[in-house]
Write a structure and sequence with these properties.
The chain has about 525 residues and is mainly α. The protein is built from 19 helices and no strands. α7 crosses α14. The protein starts with a helix and ends in a 9-residue tail after the last helix. Bound molecules: tryptophan. The site of tryptophan has 17 residues, from α2, α3, α11 and α15.
Length: about 525
């Protein structure tokens, strides 16, 4: 390939104006619902301090090395995820890449629905959501009997068409931010990313200055080894780490492909990981402080902590209820928006690189199915009149798809990348490429991490999860819900996800020519 043409091509694809722009964009991608909504509920579910060890193992042994790999794929090839794998290991890499991107699209759909709900709750917080004061005092960690209104408000809200409007709004904002690629993304993250740090700091100061707020922090920060022997805790920690660091769905490779070839990806990975996990712990502190002060019960679905429990706590603030309530949901919205942007960019960049289409065409090709999918997850039709957390059709679809896509896609992709890059391309070539422009040099241990340690850990968790899912009493996940006329959903949803992803992968890899000169 002539250097001249490759430079023109890469300039056309986009390029970050500065390293800061890239770090803001990549950390904006990493920091999202995962850090605020999912981390706190996982940390609680897996026992606070007991989550520590699996979490840090997941960060240092898996998260950072996989991020170095995903970033390097981008700078080594100047391509987004499937085409980067194609260049390095051929069609078998590409097909895996598209399978991953299909899952990314499914996850983007419901990610944006959740953001739509958060936006609706933000408007709710300005109005009636928090004005009914929470009924205190509660017994610590018991479900309060005289329930305050946040839970009822949320279920009432998602049983209306209103969140659909919010979902469309989030999609429009996402596409606008992606309109001109890196230049518009960079402009947006320069505002949103610093803003979310400021808001988070305001919330943590508020949480800690509440009487008794530090108890929650102790719960979160007192290490305890109870979880070490429980595979579910490890599974939870690995899935949380992949999701939180935006790994396993091609996002980081797309973002890194807009960097110059000589970017220091080891340094970038450390920076982005620490920013992300720092934010996550700060968010955990703010949230756990509130849980303890107001003796709130975070049990229930993943969403309940942020959508019901936190508002309930904020409603019991002595002053500034509407202000803090609005601020909290605004924080969730902007943090999630910069992540949704990256998820969509990962897919859009992939089809731009593959099909050599314009950005406008690519964005349209994502927007149309994307918005339809997101609206499906917002369907307000009530199928379980008991409203037992899965009352609406949309939330039921979301819950079942999330179970499969979230628990398998990311970790499977991480596993396959390690196999393909570690064994087919060669872990040592990856290590050399990363070391070439880095001050800090990875030793040969890195090869074994990629070739053996990470695939064994991820493979163990994948197989364990699969066995658990297939041997579960009562059939596939969700079969025990009271779904009335929709009992077929627990079977059909995983099939649509799995078969749909394979079909897309095979079609794009083998059915469409690669409109591009291969690297000589
Ligand atoms: N990391 C984001 C969060 O914590 C979500 C996200 C964006 C993501 N891009 C991703 C997750 C790619 C997995 C893969 O909310």
């Amino acid at each position: 390939m002539s250097n001249g043409s490759s430079q023109v091509a890469s300039a056309d694809r986009g390029a970050w104006k500065s390293k800061l722009g890239f770090i803001l964009a990549a950390s904006g991608s990493a920091i999202g619902l995962g850090n605020i909504v999912f981390f706190a509920s996982n940390a609680y579910q897996y026992g606070g301090g007991a989550f520590y060890l699996p979490y840090f193992v997941a960060l240092f042994v898996i998260g950072i090395p996989v991020m170095i790999m995903e970033f390097s794929l981008g700078t080594m090839t100047g391509q987004s995820f499937p085409m980067a794998l194609n260049r390095l290991v051929g069609k078998k890499g590409e097909v895996m890449g598209w399978f991953t991107m299909a899952s990314a699209l499914f996850i983007t759909m419901y990610y944006i629905t959740i953001l739509g709900w958060a936006l609706s709750m933000m408007f709710g917080a300005m109005g009636g959501l928090l004005t009914d004061p929470a009924v205190a005092p509660f017994t610590p960690f018991e479900t309060p009997s005289g329930g305050p209104s946040a839970t009822a408000y949320f279920f009432g809200l998602i049983a209306t068409w209103k969140p659909m409007l919010a979902v469309v709004t989030i999609w429009v904002l996402t596409v606008l931010i992606l309109w001109r690629g890196t230049s518009t993304i960079e402009a947006a993250v320069r505002v949103f990313v610093p803003l979310m740090w400021v808001f988070m700091i305001v919330l943590i100061v508020r949480g800690l200055t509440l009487d008794g707020g530090t108890d929650g922090v102790l719960y979160l920060f007192t290490p305890n080894l109870d979880g070490v022997s429980d595979i579910n805790v490890w599974q939870g920690a690995f899935a949380q780490m992949f999701f939180s660091l935006s790994l396993g769905l091609g996002t980081m490779t797309a973002y890194a492909s807009y960097l110059p070839k000589d970017a220091d990806q080891i340094n970038n990975s450390l920076l982005v990981s620490f920013l992300n996990c720092g934010f996550e712990y700060i968010a955990g502190v703010a949230i756990f402080a509130m849980l303890f002060v107001f003796a709130l019960n975070p049990a229930g679905s993943t969403l309940s902590l942020s959508f019901f429990v936190i508002p309930q706590g904020i409603a019991a603030f002595p002053v500034g209820v509407k202000l803090f309530g609005t601020l909290f949901f605004f924080l969730v919205v902007i943090a999630g928006l910069t992540s949704a942007v990256s998820l969509v960019e990962g897919f859009a960049a992939s089809i731009i690189d593959k099909l050599q289409i314009s950005r406008t065409t690519a964005l349209t090709m994502v927007l149309v199915p994307g918005i339809v999918g997101s609206l499906a997850f917002a369907l307000p039709q009530i199928i379980d009149p008991g409203l037992s957390g899965n009352g609406t059709l949309g939330l039921t679809l979301l819950d079942i798809l999330d179970h499969w896509a979230f628990r398998y896609a990311l970790i499977f992709s991480g596993f396959m990348q390690c196999i393909l890059i570690g064994w087919v391309f060669g872990a040592d070539r990856l290590r050399q490429a990363a070391n070439k422009y880095s001050k800090f040099h990875l030793g040969p241990w890195f090869n074994w991490l990629i070739k053996l340690v990470i695939p064994i850990m991820l493979g163990y968790v994948l197989v364990g999860t699969l066995i658990e899912d297939l041997t579960q009493d009562g059939g596939l996940y969700g079969s025990l819900y009271d779904l009335n006329a929709f009992e077929w959903l627990p079977t059909v949803i995983p099939l649509v996800w799995f078969v749909g992803s394979i079909a897309l992968a095979v079609y794009l890899t083998f059915g469409r020519p690669t409109e591009q000169a291969p690297v000589a």
